[in-house]
Automatic annotation (TrEMBL):
<keyword id="KW-0805">Transcription regulation</keyword>
<feature type="modified residue" description="4-aspartylphosphate">
    <location>
        <position position="358"/>
    </location>
</feature>
<dbReference type="InterPro" id="IPR051677">
    <property type="entry name" value="AfsR-DnrI-RedD_regulator"/>
</dbReference>
<feature type="domain" description="HTH luxR-type">
    <location>
        <begin position="451"/>
        <end position="516"/>
    </location>
</feature>
<dbReference type="InterPro" id="IPR001867">
    <property type="entry name" value="OmpR/PhoB-type_DNA-bd"/>
</dbReference>
<dbReference type="Pfam" id="PF00486">
    <property type="entry name" value="Trans_reg_C"/>
</dbReference>
<dbReference type="Pfam" id="PF00072">
    <property type="entry name" value="Response_reg"/>
</dbReference>
<dbReference type="InterPro" id="IPR036388">
    <property type="entry name" value="WH-like_DNA-bd_sf"/>
</dbReference>
<dbReference type="InterPro" id="IPR000792">
    <property type="entry name" value="Tscrpt_reg_LuxR_C"/>
</dbReference>
<dbReference type="Pfam" id="PF03704">
    <property type="entry name" value="BTAD"/>
</dbReference>
<feature type="DNA-binding region" description="OmpR/PhoB-type">
    <location>
        <begin position="23"/>
        <end position="131"/>
    </location>
</feature>
<keyword id="KW-0238">DNA-binding</keyword>
<dbReference type="InterPro" id="IPR016032">
    <property type="entry name" value="Sig_transdc_resp-reg_C-effctor"/>
</dbReference>
<feature type="domain" description="Response regulatory">
    <location>
        <begin position="307"/>
        <end position="423"/>
    </location>
</feature>
<dbReference type="GO" id="GO:0000160">
    <property type="term" value="P:phosphorelay signal transduction system"/>
</dbReference>
<dbReference type="GO" id="GO:0006355">
    <property type="term" value="P:regulation of DNA-templated transcription"/>
</dbReference>
<dbReference type="Pfam" id="PF00196">
    <property type="entry name" value="GerE"/>
</dbReference>
Length: 524
């Protein structure tokens, strides 16, 4: 039954009137029993031989008071904080007296006969659960993790497994609607996922590959871009001699990483991939990798590194970019220059595949330098970085054959994708730069393009997804804007990739732009 604030207040006053009755029992010789409490899953309190369920603590609000205090076990929590959380920032006028009544109710159930001398303590301005008087499952979980951090590899793995067993159910299982509980649950779930990845890595290290594979597989169900989980999965399969399955797993990882975050697997995975290829080289002709998802364009380019020259007068930016490029197996920084003159000279001497150039250079503009580079090597792909392009600059760049205009402060993944896929004749202009100019389309010419006849046909919803992708939104943002689930959004993205024959968000937008698909009228 839902209580009104007035009813809640009348009830709280009755409890306050009786609050000190248990103290007389304490004075008469009442004893305090240590409590055993589970906060993972449904709340359960054991006091000696008595088990108290979550529905036996005086109602939802008293239960929540206990849960909030347990989350801060051993730490004082102010009354103001409790009031703010319980009523979501909108407390009733008599919230303080109501809170105090909830605490009285809890004391009656948790420590009968002990009054204020039990585990639920009153401190200055608030309350606290005495750690010495409570055995809390979440506290045991934390203690196991601390022990694992100082144990031998085998013992650490055992302790992590024990901790995961305790955390096998959600935190605060009774609180399905409270916003504060959902936030705590999300934080705890992320922490458990990190521990699970740590346990999977430990399983590989101590010779339990089957367990590593199981833990990693569980992680990837909820977080398909968790590289630690992919690494443990591939290494676990490799360690157990399942080379073919390991190669398939690497193929899936490579595709997901490319589609979702625009990069390739990290060094440990790439090194494992090389070992697996070597181990299976003798029977390569017999291998069936049909389940590994066809290699992405980025994968096909690994056979030949893309050489890159950076021309920018900001040394810190250049150093960071060079380090990022060198972490990518298919990209290689060959040199950098700080002026237009030295950049042109470096380009003529080194013949890089791609030049990343700042639009504003100390001795001239990037367009003039780009013209000289293209005059010497017309196939050079040039990606221009700027924060303030003009329509005239974009028209000139497009006519010259420059591949892209990107914001200098943009994301690294967008830049890496552009380096891999951008081509002359279809200049990419980042949506943020287009918005600055108030332009309706990124390409300066032609003004309107017809949809390529005989080309792939996208559904209205796929076009909605594609247009948001063109605006620089990732899968999660697209799903949110269209009010669809992330899995549904990924399904649309996969359909777009299949129809366009593309393998990444940027490549899809570029291909759709080339076909004139982004100019099709909206279907609402």
């Amino acid at each position: 039954m839902v209580q009104t604030v007035a009813e809640d207040t009348r009830w709280s006053r009755r409890v306050n009137d009786d609050e000190y009755l248990p103290n007389s029992m304490e004075e008469a010789g009442g004893t305090t029993t240590k409590l055993s409490i589970n906060i993972l899953g449904p709340l359960r309190v054991r006091r000696g031989g008595v088990v108290i369920g979550s529905h036996e603590l005086g109602g939802p609000k008293p239960r929540q008071v206990l849960e909030i205090l347990l989350l801060k076990l051993g730490t004082p929590v102010s009354k103001n904080h409790l009031i703010d959380v319980l009523w979501n920032g909108q407390p009733p006028a008599e919230a303080l007296s109501t809170l105090e009544s909830y605490v009285s109710v809890l004391r009656r159930h948790l420590q009968p006969g002990s009054g204020k001398g039990g585990a639920l303590r009153t401190v200055t301005g608030g309350y606290m659960i005495d750690r010495s008087m409570v055995d809390l499952d979440l506290d045991r979980f934390d203690d196991l993790l601390k022990q694992a951090g100082h144990a031998s590899p085998e013992e650490s793995f055992r302790l992590l497994e024990k901790a995961l067993d305790i955390a096998s159910v959600p935190l605060l299982g009774d609180e399905l609607l409270a916003g504060w509980a959902e936030e705590e649950r999300a934080l705890h779930s992320a922490r458990v996922a990190s521990i699970k990845a740590r346990a999977a890595e430990a399983a590989v290290a101590v010779g339990h590959p089957e367990r590593a594979v199981a833990l990693a597989s569980e992680l990837l169900v909820d977080d398909p871009i968790n590289e630690r989980a992919w690494t443990a999965l591939v290494l676990g399969l490799e360690e157990s001699g399942q080379y073919m399955e390991a190669l398939r797993a690497y193929g899936r990882c490579r595709r997901v990483m490319d589609q979702e975050i625009g990069c390739l697997p990290g060094r440990p995975l790439r090194e494992a991939h090389a070992r697996l290829l070597q181990a299976t080289a003798a029977s390569e002709d017999e291998m069936d990798l049909s389940d590994s998802d066809a290699p992405t364009p980025a994968t096909s380019q690994i056979t030949r590194e893309i050489s890159i020259l950076t021309i920018d007068d900001h040394s810190t930016f250049t150093e960071l970019l060079t380090a990022a490029l060198d972490r990518e197996p298919d990209l290689r920084s060959v040199a950098s220059a700080t002026t237009a003159k030295s950049g042109v000279e470096q380009s003529i001497a080194l013949k890089p595949d791609v030049v990343i150039m700042d639009f504003h250079l100390p001795d001239g503009d990037g367009l003039t330098a780009a013209a000289r580079i293209l005059a010497d090597a017309p196939n050079t792909r040039i990606v221009m970085l700027t924060g303030d392009p003009t329509p005239e600059a974009l028209r000139t760049a497009a006519s010259m054959g420059i591949c892209a205009f990107l914001p200098k402060g943009g994301s690294l993944s967008t830049l890496l994708d552009t380096l891999r896929y951008a081509r002359a004749g279809n200049m990419v202009v980042h949506p943020s730069l287009v918005a600055q100019l108030g332009m309706s389309t990124p390409a300066p010419a032609p003004a309107v393009r017809e949809v390529e006849p005989g080309g792939p046909v996208l559904t209205p919803r796929e076009l909605d997804v594609l247009r948001l992708m063109a605006g620089g939104h990732g899968s999660k943002e697209v799903a949110s804007k269209l009010d669809i689930s992330l899995n549904t959004c990924r399904g649309y993205v996969k359909a777009i990739f299949a129809k366009l024959g593309t393998h990444s968000q940027l490549e899809s937008v570029m291909e759709a732009s080339r076909r004139g698909m982004l100019e099709q009228p909206s279907h609402g």
